[in-house]
Write a structure and sequence with these properties.
This protein is 34% helix and 16% strand. It is of the alpha/beta class. The chain has two domains: 175 residues, Class I glutamine amidotransferase (GATase) domain (Rossmann fold); 31 residues, no CATH class.
Amino acid sequence: MRVYLFVLSTLADWEIGYLTAELHSKRFFRDPKANVQLMKLGLSRAPVESMGGMHIAPDVGLDDIRMEKDDVLVLPGAETWENGNDVILQFARDRLEQGFRVAAICGATVGLARVGALNGLQHTSNDLGYLQSVCPQYSGAALYRKEPAVRDRNLVTATGLAPLEFTREVLAMLDVFKPETLDAWYKLFLTREEQHYHALVASMSDV
């Protein structure tokens, strides 16, 4: 299984931090030896600079990948989704229509709406009115959910203020955590209450 993280200029570092840490470390995986590869995907192999000033070198270019059914494409927020990135957006829309898995957060959801990719699936974004005002091809208002993160079939979407919920839904889609592990992990980071730490540890006792 490959998780293709699209990296682009002004990438919002904090929106994918929880997700990349758990996928790379596999520290809470039900099977720590699971063959899950986190691949940084670029439109080319040229490094990009994140919003936080981190320089990220893609592992693969878009022309190099052939998605399999259990792979997922992750689109993080950035400042360039409203007027650019058409190639990756069209790629994502086509893959969604073909049944492949896509996860998008913050500005990336606006990009998907802009190319009509959200019209047939339940979804969320930063604001419904904004989608309607800047995305002429968007006609999915009836499927919009005012929630931090939404998972519907092969699509995960989240607001830019919900990196934790976004990560929870992507991990649930990938099914790499046991349900009780994912629940304890989420509640621990959400509430910082000691009881959830103990539940997390207990959930890993037979891994």
